[in-house]
Design goal:
153 residues, alpha+beta, 13-stranded mixed sheet, 13 strands, 45% strand, globular
């Protein structure tokens, strides 16, 4: 009986610790500002949900803003994105070299990228017609409904 009790206590301590470690490991950034109609969808679900302030975002998360929406995300590497109104992106971080890719489906995203020191790492914003990449700067990428792309540094 005493042995079972110790096993249960150990299990109650171990399972939450493993789950908590997995949650932290999978977070690539945090929502630091959100306004208006703003939603997200992760890789595990097809349902769009409201974005919350201080929400953790994971690799593969899609973010979408409505006409009055705005989302700011600060990544663990201190890079920052601001998703303007009527926009949609997907966040991708390479597990091998920590490269970041922002897939901009439509709308506008502002980026502040810290200096990238690793030779293999990249920071890129992809649209349907262009790829913009930097190693440390601020820039905006806009993708229009006609598949046009505008990059401003």
């Amino acid at each position: 009986m005493k042995k079972n009790f110790h096993s249960i206590l150990l299990l109650l301590w171990f399972v939450p610790a493993v789950l908590f470690a997995q949650k932290i490991e999978s977070a690539i950034g945090t929502v630091t500002e959100v306004k208006g109609s703003s939603s997200f969808r992760d890789e595990k679900t097809d349902k769009w949900q409201n974005v919350l302030l201080r929400q953790k975002v994971k690799n593969g998360t899609k973010l979408k803003t409505g006409n009055d929406g705005f989302i700011r995300v600060e990544f663990v590497d201190k890079n920052i994105i601001e998703l303007e109104s009527s926009s949609q992106i997907e966040l991708q971080i390479s597990k091998t070299d920590a490269s970041q890719q922002i897939m901009l489906f439509f709308g506008k995203v502002w980026n502040r990228v810290q200096t990238i020191t690793s030779e293999n790492s990249k920071y890129q914003v992809h649209t349907t017609t262009a790829i913009g990449g930097v190693r440390g700067t601020e820039f905006t990428v806009a993708s229009g409904p006609d598949a046009s792309t505008q990059i401003v540094v």
